[in-house]
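Today's session is about reading a structure prediction critically. Students often jump straight to the picture, but the first step is always the sequence itself: look for stretches that repeat, for charged clusters, for runs of hydrophobic residues. Only then move on to the predicted structure, which in these notes is written as discrete structure tokens rather than atom positions. Here is the chain we will use throughout the hour.
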Amino acid sequence: MHHKKKKKTAQRIGLKLRRKRRLRAKISGSPVRPRLSVFRSAKHIYVQVIDDTTGSTLVSGSSFEKGKHTVANMDSCAQIGKTIGQRCLENNINEIVFDKNGNLYHGRVKALADGVREAGVKF
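Below is the predicted structure for this chain, in token form.
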């Protein structure tokens, strides 16, 4: 039984890596339209707005920031999205390319994207 679980997990991780590679081949961030990259762990969510031409991070945020330390549930992901959106607008970033990093556009990732859109940033 244990061996079947390992095999199923490996397949799921492999599918995620395939989605990630396929997506990164198609998109890249520019100074005009940087890439918003999302990393989702079991407890937290991390977001970066990246200019791929220079390889620099323009804006970042996470559920693990100083003073917050909240678990990344749907509500806090939406709040993090709004915060990232506000930081983008402060840095004159009005349009971004969304990189879900192989994750499905569902749940916490979708809540974060909706929060960024709600702040006024266009995808």
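Discussion point for the tutorial: The mean pLDDT is 89.
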